[in-house]
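S1.2 Input.
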Amino acid sequence: MRTRVSTVLVLLLVLPTLMGCFGEDAKPPAVPDHPFGFEEAIASGVWYHVGGSPASQNATDILDAEAMAERGFSMDMFNGSNVPYWANGTYYGTGYDTFEPTLGILSDGTIVFTNFEGAGAGTKIIRSQDQGQTWENVGPFGQVYPTGQVPNSNDPYIYVDPWTDRIVKFDMHALVAMYVEYSDDGGDTWSVPFTAYGYYTPQDHQSIASTLDVNGIGFYETIYVYCINTGTSIAGPQCSRSLDGGHTWDLQQPGSPLTTQCSGLHGHVVGSIDGWVYRGNPSCEGPAVYASDDGGYTWSEHTITTEVGMQQGWHSHEVATATDAAGNLYGMWIGDGMMPWVSWSTDHGDTWREPIMVAAPGIEEAGFPTIHAGADGRVAFAYIGEFTDGGGWGGFMGVVTDANATNPLITTTMVNEFGDMLDMTDDCGDVRCGGFGDFIDIEIDDQGRPWVALAHNVNNAEAVIGTWTTGPSLFGDNITMLDILPAGGNSTLLM
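S1.3 Output.
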């Protein structure tokens, strides 16, 4: 296992000699020249850094000892779970195109991913049962529309209920009607479409999630909640819940306690293990999270910070949210200067940790924030980023293995290589951009491996899925290294 242990103020290298038997001539391991030395060289496109704050918006590269000392850091802040682990990013092509990619992962490791086929064909779901190596189209297919049960989808969306393994396909047709289809056998068969018509039109930016029915008010193990954007700040976002597994839905209710909101758009809805539901949305004061403890029927407003504003561009509405296995709440957004920020709360959003800027050192612009959490304090987030104008946009995945630490260490990997950028549009982080559309998505499988849904716009908006060849697991009582997957990249593209 490629880990580090700290003694006094120096992190020692776990040398291969320590793995074998010590003979009579065995010598103590040499202290590495660099505190983050590993058994093998740090891979290209991997950074170890700590986050910035409102007073210091540039992340510090831990590999720069002088810069680290200037910030007042020392090696003893890396202990417990807050230590560096060797990691390396990669991606796999799917052979299918995508738009606003979302994904879900079943408990057996099956990955489902949205495949956008446009008007007349609707959205299909592609599936991988071998950790992204091969993909197949599993529909759903219908008799009325042989190419699909729902003839069109403006916003394709897929969600896997983490408590029941139900795959929920949520489509929006012509900004007016919405349909829920589900599969309880991993995508082999699908239910008929159930309508989730809303009261307000247009219906847009829809998102769906589930939470445990801790109060026993429903007729299914979990409660489903969807929220939509109405296109007006007066109506604001509207939300609805289903108590019977997605068959029928309550009338839409305001997704905010206020009569007027500054933005009706929101990030993906997320459900927590304790029965709470959250959605990210700017308040009139800054990035915010809205919380519901009654299955999405009523909501309270929780502004994360008034010090780090929202980026005033295409992504000014997008606050991504996540909850970990302990019920902690995380929020992520693109802030002033087009940089990604993260904060978290242990009390349902009532109070928040000082936000940290989480971009890898050298990134000048970022967009499309998304976040997901695993065990207590372990969180993964993703975004697209650009180092220099015109240099192209890459897919970045950052991981924190101990959010409870005073100075959480961030390990960031770029899933594509520098010569294989995902998009070459100069302002991709600030506009709708090819297959990215409004958002990307990230999930963590039950083994603790993060997966990020992206589009390779240079290669015909092909759906690609980023992950680690190996890295620290984000689930489990103790942090272990994940099994090694083969390197992917450009050679796996199929379109």
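S1.4 Remarks. Residues 1-41 form one domain.
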